[in-house]
Amino acid sequence: MVLLLPQGLAICIFLHALLGLAEGSQSFSWHLTNHEFERARSLTVCDSLHISLPSSSGNYNNIGHLPYTLLAFEAGGALTATQIHEDGLWQVKHPAGSLLLLTLVDSLGNSGGVLPTVFTVASGSSDCLPTLSTPANAPTIITNATYIEPCDSWQMSISGGVPPYTIMFASPGAPSLQDFAVSQESSLVSFINSGIALRGPTIACMFCYR
User: Fold this and answer.
1) Which of 11, 110, 124, 199 could form a disulfide with 45 if both were Cys (CB 3.0 to 4.6 A apart)?
2) Are 159 and 187 in contact (CB under 8 A)?
């Protein structure tokens, strides 16, 4: 199961890490395709792409439950959550140069897995980009490292926002997201990179209420 986010603010950082978290479960598969219905290998600002949900052997019980939500983890930016409508389209509303990891969850919080590609958004029309204002009490993260090996400790100092905080990890090709809660009394977090799943570059997001 994936944590479904209430209304709030999520700030993401890029962690060049060998993620050692234990594997979660993946309930269905999905792909992102372009207008030729080929798997998308790149993203361009304001382009619209199709969400493809292939079934196994014609079994449509393993494609999740409507509606779906696409989570886009932007390194150094915000985590965005977009509900996918009946047309099955998702629009790239992240600025050029953004590094994104994408995952899809269904209405029950079941995971479709994180796509294996870290996408770099190419420049294009910016008409669709929202105007974002930075809240006066925006959360910030200060870390002791940008690269960690399995079993290493990752120290974080969190300020701003409204606790309690939740840390979420998206890693390329992972079957699901990983998350853990930070106690309301704590602004110093120590994360032990435990387990056996080596996934490579990872985007970590801190979520909190505004």
Assistant:
1) 124
2) yes
Exposed (0-12), middle (13-18) or buried (19+): which is 143, by Cβ within 10 Å? Answer: middle
Neighbours of 155 (CB within 10 A): 13
The residues, any chain, with a CB within 8 Å of residue 60's CB and separated by 6 or more, are none
CA-wise closest residue to 9 among 101, 77, 109, 99: 77
Q: What is the mean pLDDT of residues 29-35?
A: 92
Beta-bridge mates of residue 8 = none
Is 12's pLDDT higher than 90? no
pLDDT of residue 9: 42
Q: Determine the 3-state secondary structure of 62 from DSSP.
A: helix
Nearest to 169 by CA among 13, 1, 6, 7: 13
Backbone angles phi, psi at 45, to 5 degrees: -50, 130
- Angle among Cα 40, 41, 45 to the nearest 5 degrees reads 75
Phi, psi of 154 (to 5 degrees): -115, 115
User: Mean pLDDT in the chain?
Assistant: 77
Residue 69: other Cβ atoms inside 10 A: 17
Stronger pLDDT, 164 or 133, i.e. the higher one: 164
CA atoms of 180 and 198, how far apart (whole Å): 19
Pairing of strands 99-105, 79-84: unpaired
